[in-house]
Design goal:
Strand order of the largest sheet: 2-1-3-4-5
Radius of gyration: 18 Å
Structural class: alpha/beta
CATH superfamily: Carbonic anhydrase
Bound molecules: zinc ion
Number of helices: 10
Number of domains: 1
Number of strands: 5
Largest sheet: 5 strands, mixed
CATH class: Alpha Beta
Helix content: 40-55%
Distance between the termini: 29 Å
CATH topology: Beta-carbonic Anhydrase, Chain A
């Protein structure tokens, strides 16, 4: 859309080599161990949590002082890595009725994948060994809508929404218009992020190919709180 003086991907790619060993120490052999639960079990926990949330019967598990103490002492063992939009109407832990140490969450406008998001997903799936990765878009996403409508964006936002353009082009090629086009673009953008993750990360590709990780798409309906699995 517009040329930025500093490429975010290029800048961070250069920095990542230097900082990764400082902040993300790799446990020896961590990724060789079997995950504590299967992708199917993790998926089931998310489905059940959203069902409770939808029914107004959230149990708000793992939010006690005991849980804080446990997770501080024993480290984190989340069962799912979730990439979602930063939209304030998509509070991920609430939506799935989970608490501290349960979900490894990445939130960025438009749930796009650039180097930071790919690296964070690798940390969740590869290092923390979450058996499930979920890319979750949502209805009425402002970032996707801005691209569909060709809205004027400024600052660093053009570089961010650049990642959404291919998804919008695919949706437009199907001939939809109005709200239907926006919804389709939002779904295409979820698939786009999954493809980008697997194309940009050999580690994630290998984890999926070897059956140690599953990656699925979801759409959160901000109108009623329901998570639709794509
Ligand atoms: Zn959004």
């Amino acid at each position: 859309m517009c040329d930025h003086p500093i490429s975010r991907r290029g800048l961070l790619a250069g920095m990542a080599v230097g900082v990764s060993s400082l902040f993300l120490p790799r446990l020896p052999g961590a990724s060789e161990q079997a995950p504590p639960m299967s992708a199917e079990q993790a998926y089931q926990l998310l489905r059940e949590g959203n069902a409770r949330f939808l029914a107004g019967k959230s149990e708000r598990p793992n939010l006690t002082a005991k849980r804080i103490e446990e997770t501080a002492g024993q480290g984190q063992h989340p069962f799912a890595t979730i990439l979602s939009c930063s939209d304030s109407r998509v509070p991920v832990e609430h939506v799935f009725d989970r608490g501290i140490g349960d979900l490894f969450v990445i939130r960025v406008a438009g749930n796009v994948i650039d180097i930071d998001e790919a690296g964070t997903t690798e940390y969740g799936a590869g290092h923390l060994m979450t058996p499930l990765v979920v890319v979750m878009g949502h209805t009425q996403c402002g970032a996707v809508t801005a691209v569909v409508k060709g809205a004027q964006v400024t600052g660093n936002i053009p570089k961010l929404v650049e990642h959404i353009i291919p998804a919008v082009e695919r949706a437009k090629a199907k001939g939809g218009t109005g709200d239907a086009l926006i919804l389709d673009a939002i779904k295409e953008n979820v698939h786009q992020s999954i493809q980008t993750l697997l194309a940009s990360s050999q580690e994630l590709y290998h984890l999926r190919e070897s059956g140690r990780m599953k990656i699925i798409g979801a759409l959160y309906h901000i109108e009623n709180g329901k998570v639709e699995w794509l």
